[in-house]
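Narrative of accomplishments. A recurring question from our advisory board has been how the design workflow behaves on a single, concrete structure rather than in aggregate. To address it, we present the structure tokens for one chain from the evaluation set, followed by the sequence designed for it. No filtering or post-editing was applied between the two.
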């Protein structure tokens, strides 16, 4: 019994210290590529114009629309949070920053509107802000970062 235990430990140590053959693709590569794919989809789904077009509801108040937009972004992010184990820290940080930035923009624009404003007015102001200042939205930059890293894995 002690011999079997010793032999298992030796095999485990060897598997940790042995370098994988460069010709063999890593076993995690498909999972990593799938994670990048899912995160690119997430970035597209939480881009403010896309969230607004999916969630636009007439007759809803400012605070309700603000709550709805923020919650949709948070839910999309939380649904994909496990993908962070397959991507670089930089890539994950970029996705997280995009989420935080979009929530900040929604809250900031909502704070400048009068309390009696409608959800439609909030959406209109958000879209106008993005159209007038495209650099405000990071989603294209984050998509490019994720795409670049995924392509690096494939080469």
């Amino acid at each position: 019994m002690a011999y079997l235990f010793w032999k298992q430990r030796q095999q485990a140590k060897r598997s940790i210290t042995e370098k994988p053959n460069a010709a063999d693709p890593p076993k995690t590569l498909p999972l990593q590529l799938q994670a990048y794919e899912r995160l690119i989809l997430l970035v597209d789904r939480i881009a403010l114009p896309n969230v607004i077009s999916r969630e636009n509801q007439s007759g809803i108040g400012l605070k309700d629309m603000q709550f709805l937009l923020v919650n949709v972004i948070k839910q999309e992010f939380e649904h994909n949070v496990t993908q962070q184990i397959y991507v670089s820290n930089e890539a994950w940080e970029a996705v997280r920053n995009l989420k935080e930035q979009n929530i900040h923009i929604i809250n900031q624009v909502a704070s400048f509107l009068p309390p009696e404003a409608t959800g439609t007015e909030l959406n209109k102001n958000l879209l106008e802000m993005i159209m007038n200042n495209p650099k405000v939205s990071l989603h294209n930059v984050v998509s490019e970062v994720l795409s670049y890293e995924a392509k690096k894995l494939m080469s």
